[in-house]
Amino acid sequence: MTASPRTVGGCRPGTRRRLAAHEAMAAGLEVRCSIHVEHVCVEANRVLVDWPEAHGHEAGRLVADAVIVTVPVPQAAALLGGDVFVPSIVYLPTLSLMVALDRGAEISPSGGLQVAENPVWSFIGDNQAKGTSTVSVVTFHSTSGFAATAWTYIASPRPATATTPRAR
């Protein structure tokens, strides 16, 4: 597949800075995106990847020396048919807030800012600077501590309060 200026193999890898790295790593490789893989297995030291016909893609099988699986561990284990040791993993909660701006954001040249020692926000991302949006959108990611507290508050039952409608 030929890479367009903002994609690798037709896929959008994210930040412009990472684009060059993705292009270098993908040089000479067959890159496939948006394929719903159903099964991954190893036979005779080869990796077999199967997918059904779906979403405009024909069914197929990829036979390779190696593949990179980038889904969360539970989904990877399911793809591998449970033939893999899955360590005990604890996922930490987070909340995200996406804000559209009427002008460009000035977060950082890389498009992201890791926030140190803030009890609410851990990361702020400028989606336009990262190349994942054509308009100015900023995404705020909360700390796991804040998310756990907020989620507990949101999910906890509160006593019903009686309100009297005001006359207008």
Give structural notes.
It is a single chain. This protein is an alpha+beta fold. It contains four helices and seven strands. The protein has three domains: 1-33, no CATH class; 34-88, no CATH class; 96-155, no CATH class. It has a four-stranded antiparallel β-sheet. The chain has a three-stranded antiparallel β-sheet with strand order 1-2-3, with no helix packed on it. The radius of gyration is 22 Å and the shape is extended.
Strand and helix map with partners:
Blueprint: H1 16-26, E1 39-43, E2 46-51, E3 60-64, H2 73-79, E4 96-100, E5 112-114, E6 121-126, H3 127-130, E7 137-142, H4 144-155
Antiparallel strand pairs: 1-2, 2-3, 4-7, 5-6, 6-7
Quick structural overview:
The protein is of the alpha+beta class and 168 residues long.
Which structural class best describes the helix and strand composition?
alpha+beta
Beta-strand residue percentage: 15-25%
pLDDT under 50 segments (min length 5)?
A: 1-9
Domain count: 3
Which strands sit side by side, in order, in the main sheet? 4-7-6-5
Q: Give the integer mean of the pLDDT values.
A: 79
Number of E-type strands: 7
Helix amount: 10-25%
Number of helices: 4
Radius of gyration using CA atoms only = 22 Å
Q: List SSEs in N-to-C order.
A: HEEEHEEEHEH
Q: Largest sheet, if any?
A: 4 strands, antiparallel
Distance between the termini: 66 Å
Coarse shape: extended
